[in-house]
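This section describes the prediction task in plain terms. A model, or a person checking by hand, is given the sequence of a single protein chain and must write out its three-dimensional structure as a string of tokens. No templates, partner chains or ligands are provided. The sample shown here is typical of the held-out split.
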Amino acid sequence: MESKAARRIVETIGIIGVIGSLIFVGIEIRQNSVTTRAATDAAIADSFRELSLAQATSPALASAFAAHAADPASAPGEAQVLMLGFWRALFHIWSNVHRQHLNGTVDPAIYDSVVREISSYAGPPLTAGPSGEIEVRRRLMSWAWTSERFLFNTDFQEFVDELLASPPPRTSTCSGRDDG
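The expected answer:
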């Protein structure tokens, strides 16, 4: 009788140990997910910052955009290389955000802002609002995407092509609010 009681006590302690271990593993996985998402979000922010810094500190790039934004295809070769390089870098950042979204490792608010950015550059002409700068970026993006699209994976190509074919979103994909 004593051996059965002792065995039950040992089994109960074992079960409590297994449950405690599972709880600990669950907490560790959750903390790892938070850490992974934070690292991904920081890397994305760094990518945008680096691209903005490169753009802000390159007189040649600024001149290329200023002189040839209306018709980038007619720009001299060097100016086209600079402008395409900028857009290719931006497309790579967007592609990374899209991939991280598919993997579930990016903050939905960051993904939402990238979708809004792409959509605002890709949408139909604005009838009101800040049309000047956005229209220039739309022309440039269309020209660059046509040239650089082949570099990106099919998932991202389809994602951008879908955004190019549809009007800019009015509803946030991460909060469900209607911002328009």
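For orientation: The chain has one domain: 39-165.
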